Amino acid sequence: MNTFGRIFRISIYGTSHNSELGILIDGCPPGMEISIEEFSEEILRRSSGQQGTTPRQEDDIPFIKSGIYNGRTNGTPLLISFKNNNFKSADYEFGGFCRPGHADFAAAAKYKNFNDPNGGGQFSGRMTLPLVAAGVIAKKIIPDVEIKAEIYSIGNTRNINHEIEDAKKQLDSLGGIVQCNISGINPGLGEPFFDSVESLISHAVFSIPGVKAIEFGEGIRSASMRGSVFNDVFIDKSGKTGTNNSGGINGGITNGNDIYFRVYFRPASSIGKRQKTLNFETGEIQDFELKGRHDTCYVLRTPVIVEAVAAIVLADLTLLSAC
Amino acid sequence: MNTFGRIFRISIYGTSHNSELGILIDGCPPGMEISIEEFSEEILRRSSGQQGTTPRQEDDIPFIKSGIYNGRTNGTPLLISFKNNNFKSADYEFGGFCRPGHADFAAAAKYKNFNDPNGGGQFSGRMTLPLVAAGVIAKKIIPDVEIKAEIYSIGNTRNINHEIEDAKKQLDSLGGIVQCNISGINPGLGEPFFDSVESLISHAVFSIPGVKAIEFGEGIRSASMRGSVFNDVFIDKSGKTGTNNSGGINGGITNGNDIYFRVYFRPASSIGKRQKTLNFETGEIQDFELKGRHDTCYVLRTPVIVEAVAAIVLADLTLLSAC
Amino acid sequence: MNTFGRIFRISIYGTSHNSELGILIDGCPPGMEISIEEFSEEILRRSSGQQGTTPRQEDDIPFIKSGIYNGRTNGTPLLISFKNNNFKSADYEFGGFCRPGHADFAAAAKYKNFNDPNGGGQFSGRMTLPLVAAGVIAKKIIPDVEIKAEIYSIGNTRNINHEIEDAKKQLDSLGGIVQCNISGINPGLGEPFFDSVESLISHAVFSIPGVKAIEFGEGIRSASMRGSVFNDVFIDKSGKTGTNNSGGINGGITNGNDIYFRVYFRPASSIGKRQKTLNFETGEIQDFELKGRHDTCYVLRTPVIVEAVAAIVLADLTLLSAC
Amino acid sequence: MNTFGRIFRISIYGTSHNSELGILIDGCPPGMEISIEEFSEEILRRSSGQQGTTPRQEDDIPFIKSGIYNGRTNGTPLLISFKNNNFKSADYEFGGFCRPGHADFAAAAKYKNFNDPNGGGQFSGRMTLPLVAAGVIAKKIIPDVEIKAEIYSIGNTRNINHEIEDAKKQLDSLGGIVQCNISGINPGLGEPFFDSVESLISHAVFSIPGVKAIEFGEGIRSASMRGSVFNDVFIDKSGKTGTNNSGGINGGITNGNDIYFRVYFRPASSIGKRQKTLNFETGEIQDFELKGRHDTCYVLRTPVIVEAVAAIVLADLTLLSAC
Predict the structure, then answer these.
(1) For residues C47 and C38, what is the distance between their CA atoms, to the nearest angstrom?
(2) Over the stretch A194-207, which tens digit does the pLDDT of each residue have?
(3) Which residues, including other chains, have CB under 8 Å from residue A17's CB and lie 6 or more apart?
(4) Strand order in the sheet with A78-83
(5) Are A103 and B265 inside 8 Å of each other by CB?
(6) Closest to B7 (Cβ–Cβ): which among D29, D76, D323?
């Protein structure tokens, strides 16, 4: 349930306010050089401290507890863990409220109230930190593939700075769109049905908290296009196409052109602004105000996470293609 | 690779022009009554013969080859097969061309040219017929859940008839949007990460040929909304919310409100209209004209397929929730 | 539940008295030449008609329903099915009895009495026919590996003919031991823990009806040996060892020496001889006499089945070793 | 590859001389009370310090890093880790030798020489410590089931003390047999084919280092028995049988009678006694003498490990039976 992948397999564990959280990575080829330093840049891209992101600061230092011998993978699973140092569980008592937009109500049903509410527990955005670490490893398995995700828009606009200022002032939060482009990919990866490239990437992307939509190529616009416009015609023998409306994937299989997709993030559920919602204890609709540290726009931190899950899928498909 | 699900597991086989195609279904509880008649309505919804769909007619009669004893499931896998009677393989020789928009090029790379090109082989829309059959079984496992998909728009419009007439006249094809609504679902299904409800439904939906985007709830609009607007506030103790922007899923888990999602289909790749594309033998850009039978708007046939894959996911999650 | 393997994956379906039974095989590399004739010899080895085996005759002709194009695998799953023609379901009504030694009682508990009792249903030895077919495919994936299983002993003896005559006369059945030797295997297959070669082969072997024990190398004797005697010492640089007590596997991994293992089959449960057992309806211990066609010594038919499941495991491990 | 189970899923990581080793356990129902103290007794049963076992002493204290909230499982995976404190890697340099009986040669082939040789790396018997921890959890999931493994024989004898003294004096090692009995199990667990109870238990048991054979019920003797003797006849309506030659399993499914099986362990490969074997550097057969700490009879420590893997299988099957 907390595992993804067939050869390159990742299993996530921990919660926001556990002593630690992390990821177990199986299927790494033996002999890969890995050093802690390689994680810094990617982890920094995800870290808070940017405008509009949460003031919670963590060390975010990865500890590789297994799988490495003399600086190289030894063929056994890598366990990469992170400590949770800087949290305030006291912030996570909400009286009779289930926070609007959050998983509190759904989780209580699933876990019969035994789940850890602090910091969102297993639903915390902090759980994406190990995903980023796994992404670092995945990218090393496919060195010729370049994966680049970036902010496409925030809220209604690409004039992002002003939008964030404004939302922050109003104690509100913002959604946004991240676009990811992948070049250097071999044709022939993926499967025609259940393991289509779109199936696997969307599976992984929707495990990132906050994602509510994904489109591959000109996916959304494609529904209103005609075939004669949408079809990507070939222009050379390598399979390069003139347009790339299909986002590099035909019939679920890579065609060698760039894969690209856009990910739609809803605004963060946690806002300082007062909301009216049900108090489950009193049975009445009441004012609800959330304490704690919140991102005005966590979306700014997500491009590296999107890259990570795309890399995880493509590393697995690449290893599988050798069978 | 051709299998999906954990308890309720389906494995698809066959191609468009094989003698048969079908699906193997494992994990059905024993004792379910199943008769051939129950498949008719769903299969009819998928069948051609509607305005704008292919003139190819098949019997589309399901043969249940195993898993049934005295009219009830006996606990062993169900094999459901369909015959391929009415095909013309001669239509599928394209000289030096890889058809634009199709998987011909990608498949040649993946299968080293050993794949069956006829009728699109394993990439054929005909492969969705066994999915519909599996959907019939899946729906019976979750009798209290109502799944209803319908056409939301075709091409640019909801005035669909005229749009189809026009495209047909121009030998072109049309995309469209299907909306699916699911009510009666228990809260607590799904997982916080890799097996989020969105992850699993999108995984299954993207295995339907032609799908290029999916949004859950107000997924696309959510990226431009603020948290105070997007958040669904609770209005009663059952967990019902006033709005349902999140589409019934929080943190990957069902919250008991209706699940809804929209699926974006690209226009069919096969069009009668002349296209300019590379001839891989001559190395020149040439005119390419496609013979054969084509759907102007195959999207009209997809709502029942979307329902089927949603039912498959929810049947599996429901069985899993008992563990 | 009815599936085995990671890349080369097989899924079994059907029962003894269904219209058909068979196997779905995923993960075959595209481009393998396959013809029906290749199955004949192996299927004949399994077939009845030998001394001491059941008089039931089936055509046992494999139908390859999918996965082949122009005589070669096309990269999609192979469905191989067999018809059930020659059965007498009337033989399978036992009054209030659960047959001693059979799965009748266990199956009733598992399947809540919805299982098909005829011919043993899914527990029938006939289910090994599709395993043999899958073995034929598996052997083609590892052409350099030679797998040879043969009868080691029947009942108490290696003087087999007389033993069978005697048991037949007494309307009784016989167990036996099959030894399997595998040469030409590369070193380095398998995993140190859960997917050790012994784990995977034993997993597959114990799915053959009637198997109750397995030993690898001198496994049983090894428990009473000392390390200085058991240890296989190396005698040349290829890794060849002087003795082969470990049966070619160290730490779960092949070492390049021959793999060998012995499989212990219990005698068939179905015997003509009168037995005393509980009548569940009357609640009394009564005489029970079994009609129908029975093998005196089904073990004679099993070497090819043992080879098949070994080949299935090794084909999968060989494909995996390329990742 | 390092994962086992379908609902109750365990993934093992680490090596003998890593900073830590452990196990990730997914699929525990939420709300189970778990305390560190519950592990002590089982871990003590596995620990060294008994007559004939290695003098290496470790703290063997389990650290539960995740999955617990307020003393109860919270529905997320449990990570249980153990520190490696007391090791001497210097003992693990063997010149040009691959140790006889060990996985050195096989591992070099598999991991292309990147594996960690120290303490046997991932092949170390120390890896069974996390299995024991997972067994503690598994047993709590099936509280009505009693699993009891014990030494059946050591070397040639049940007069164990003298045998160990003698082997120790001769710097040699001893194998042995462990018998495991399981009572209180429901009928109806397991599957007729690939997931037969025997398949799953043997799969798990053969992942314990040193196991070379397994028999269920009177498995080995059964091969020389006749059906009229082997068949277990029913004696009451609960399904109880007079004899239990089949070890509580018919057709792969539990029948409610006690499951029992015997596990055959080869003697430890590491012995102090001088052996003649190939020096891969010189290409000559030379004397080889092993330093380091060795068990004369590690088998004494294995009953709790056998119980653990049996519990892991049965916990998984029990959870699955609810689907």
Answers:
(1) 15
(2) 999 999 999 999 99
(3) A84, A87, A89, A92, A116, A118, A119, A121
(4) A3-4, A9-14, A20-26, A78-83, A63-66
(5) no
(6) D323
Q: How far is CA D158 from CA A120, D279, D302, in A?
A: 57, 38, 16
Predicted pLDDT at C89: 65
Q: Which amino acid is at D36?
A: I
Question: Residues A112-138: what's their mean pLDDT?
Answer: 93
Q: Is the pTM of this model over 0.95?
A: yes
CATH fold group of domain B3-321: Chorismate synthase, AroC fold (3.60.150)
Angle between helices A128-141 and A37-46 (to 10 degrees): 130
CA-closest candidate to residue B215, choices A266, A305, A4 = A266
Residue with tokens 């939420």: D30
Number of neighbouring beta carbons within 10 Å of residue D123: 26
CA distance C259 to B11: 33
CA-nearest of A23, A127, A43 to A84 is A127
Give dist(CA B267, CA A147) in Å, integer.
Answer: 28
Half-sphere exposure of B18 (CA within 13 A, CB side): 32
Report CB contact under 8 Å: A77, D13: yes
- For B207, the 3-state DSSP assignment is coil
Contact C48, C300 (CB under 8 A): no
| DSSP single-letter state for residue A27 | -
Q: Quick one: three-class SS letters along C163-213?
A: HHHHHHHCCCCECEEEEEEEECCCCCCCCCCCCCHHHHHHHHHCCCCCEEE
Is D103–C192 a contact, with Cβ atoms under 8 angstroms apart? yes
| Of C203, A23, A283, B63, the residue nearest D202 (C-alpha) | C203
* D19: closest CA of chain A, how far (Å): 7
Output the CA angle B42-B43-B46, nearest 5 degrees.
95
Question: Averaged over B200-224, what is the pLDDT?
Answer: 98
The count of C-alpha atoms lying within 13 angstroms of the C-alpha of B229, restricted to the half-sphere facing its C-beta, is 14
Chain B: nearest CA to A292, how far in angstroms?
16
How many residues would you count in chain C?
323
Which residues in A lie closer than 8 A to residue D75 (C-beta atoms)? Answer: 110-111, 114-115, 122
- Using one digit for the tens of pLDDT, what is the confidence trace for A238-274? 999 999 999 999 999 999 999 999 999 999 999 999 9
One-letter amino acid at B265 equals: F
Whether residues B228 and A273 touch (CB distance < 8 A) is answered with: yes
User: D3-34 pLDDT, tens per residue?
Assistant: 999 999 999 999 988 889 999 999 999 999 99
User: Which of D54, D221, D228 is the mutation pick for testing C, counting most C CBs within 10 A?
Assistant: D228
For C196-231, letters b (16+ CB in 10 Å) and e give bbbbbbbbbbbbbbbbbbbbbbbbbbbbbbbbbebb
3-state secondary structure (DSSP) of residue C125: helix
Which residues have C-beta within 8 Å of that of residue C40, sequence separation ≥ 6? none
Contact D253 C106 (CB under 8 A): yes
To the nearest whole Å, the CA of D68 is away from the closest chain A CA by: 8
* Sign, CA torsion D118/D124/D126/D131: positive
Q: Which residue of C has its CA nearest to D215?
A: C213
Q: Which of C29, C76, C323 sits opposite A320 (nearest CB)?
A: C323
Q: Tell me which amino acid residue D38 is.
A: E
Looking at residue D61, its amino acid is I
Give residue D150's identity as a one-letter amino acid code. Answer: E
Interface test with C, best of D258, D266, D284 (most C CBs within 10 A): D266
**pLDDT score of A168:** 95
Exposure string for D291-304, b = 16+ CB within 10 A, e = fewer: eebbbbbbbbbbbb
Q: At what angle do helices B197-205 and A197-205 cross, to 10 degrees?
A: 170
Mean pLDDT across the stretch D273-297?
A: 91
Whole-number Å distance between alpha carbons of A258 and A235: 15
